[in-house]
Design goal:
Length: 184
């Protein structure tokens, strides 16, 4: 391979190698990761973080019951479906989530608890939901946030009130949460 071909090959490889990075930088809802080690088990959630403000106009949007309609399954963020990865099985609201990867969705309700949906299908775009792949649906506690969250946020942390962890979803003025434990 002559020198000119080598440089052309190297430049092409560099561009292709950075394509995923460049695509992420152009996203309106940036990707993020929430992760914690609880009882010797790493729990990680990969998701994208939309903003309360409309990305085109900057105008504030009503989130719950507006952008995210009540009574309809929502992808928990933006872009690809939200991915939960755990090294050991988890117990969440009486549902066992197996070790490995699963997808999270939310069914927000105007009256009554929102449902966290655990789905065994992975790798799909966020709006591609197949209820036949559900592992389970779990009631989430709903609270009002003291300070409004402009950007959708997921947190995984030690449960301050009991053993195990706590999964929290925060956006606008609402927080949904559910405790979980690591199955041994």
């Amino acid at each position: 391979m002559n020198r000119r071909h080598f440089f052309a090959f190297a430049a092409g490889a560099l561009l292709l190698g950075n394509a995923p990075l460049m695509a992420q930088q152009a996203r309106v809802s940036p990707p993020d990761v929430a992760s914690a080690v609880l009882d010797g088990n790493r729990v990680t959630v990969y998701y994208s973080r939309p903003f309360t403000k409309d990305p085109k106009t900057g105008a504030p949007r009503k989130i719950w019951g507006g952008l995210v309609p009540f009574g309809q399954v929502w992808r928990l963020g933006a872009n690809e479906a939200t991915l939960l990865v755990t090294q050991q099985p988890l117990e969440v609201g009486g549902v066992t989530i197996p070790a490995g990867a699963s997808t999270l969705f939310l069914l927000p309700q105007q009256d009554g608890p929102a449902k966290l949906i655990i789905n065994k299908q992975v790798g799909q775009w966020g709006s591609q939901y197949d209820d036949k792949q559900d592992i389970g649906r779990i009631d989430m506690k709903t609270d009002t946030l003291d300070k409004s969250a402009d950007q959708f946020t997921i947190a995984v942390a030690k449960n301050p009130d009991a053993a195990g962890g706590l999964l929290r979803l925060m956006w606008e003025n609402t927080q949904y949460s559910v405790p979980f434990t690591v199955k041994k």
